Amino acid sequence: MEPIVIIGAGLAGSEAAWQIAKRGGKVILYEMKPKVFSPAHRSPFFAELVCSNSFKSESFENASGVLKEEMRELGSLILNVSAETRVPAGDSLAVDREVFSREITQILEGLENVKVIREEVSSIPQEGFTIIATGPLTSEALSKEIQKVTGSHRLFFYDALSPIVTADSINFQKIFRSSRYGKGGMDYINCPMNEEEYNQFVITLNKAEKVPVHAFEKRYLFEGCLPIEEMAGRGGATLAHGPLKPVGLTDPATGRQPFAVVQLRQENRSGTLFNMVGFQTRLKYEEQKRVFRMIPGLEHAEFVRLGSIHRNTFIDAPRLLGNALQLKHCSNLFFAGQITGVEGYMESTAMGLLCGINAYRYANGMPMVVPPMTTAIGALVHYITQSLSVPFQPMNINFGLFPPLPGKSKGRGKRLLMAKRALREIKKWREEVEG
Q1: pTM of the prediction?
Q2: Partner of 356 at 20 to 30 A CA spacing, among 25, 151, 182, 251?
Q3: Residue ranges covered by each domain of the chain
Q4: Strand positions, DSSP E, 214-279
Q5: Positions of E strands within 162-221
Q6: Which fold is adopted by the domain 4-158+312-434?
């Protein structure tokens, strides 16, 4: 069997390479780092996490928890390594990003049937089988090639990175440690705000100077990852009901729920860095320092990373891809990861996992396979390949993508029933596919 070419060693490309290699297939894995870096990348390692270090909730009451459990069932490399490199984050799965990426790199580089080439790819191979997993920061040269082969214009929106502060610059006299409803113990740092502090913060945030954005770009902002100032501009109470919501938290200094809370999540295993949860932003750098130091406990915060915006490129998947993530009019070309129109680390990885399975099967003359819509992976694939939205927009996994349950169950009970159904169906699917 000839090698399957994978372009891009991010989460999706790394997972696809693993799925092919563990089945005995050969892989040529191209990664342009460290010779070429995108504006948001800094590390030479594979599977670099450029935004948050969190893979979200592991609870089965959350669709992201169901997705991760399905991926574990299917032998995901990313999930296996994340378990070995995790850091405290309540009921969420978060990792030490550098240790995580280094281990992924070492594993793949150590496989005999994976050949790693550290070169930028500017054209798509015409022969053989190829997976494009270049992610939201696909280079300009390759983007133009993708445009040629897909025959469509590139779609895009803008994500924003959240700032990271050092632990020793936080004023611990003004904060308290707790997770919402006590889940996870003391994992999060909470910066409480009273009503006056909150209102002044919102006023200042709304007046702060931002990086210019063209009017036509605003329609492409992804609702699940809006800049903090974009949310503040939608009304004074928006943040208090969004990323600054105090629900499930009690300030031990007052014995009451604060008016608003800014949460900080541990960024690395040593606990020296903390990420400002939900503070994606396009404020200018000096404005970020000025405004965010108004937050109680962050008056003297040292920012080791400030927020910034970056392009997110994805194809018009409903018009271009079959449900095996194969280009409809070019059967030897597959797409994996965020470039397919999913949003989120685990969603991208899941598409890499499925793409790797199907590229291997197709290259070996086997029928391609897709989990049923009742599973998280199947629901995601169905969304990106069947969505009727124009323009097509990315989506995180959520229970709204799953087929409805019979009966009238609601709320938590409904979510748990959907989760049980999904996990039952993915196990059955794996047994049927793998034998």
Answers
A1: 0.77
A2: 151
A3: 4-158+312-434, 164-307
A4: 260-266, 273-276
A5: 164-166, 176-177, 188-193
A6: FAD/NAD(P)-binding domain (3.50.50)
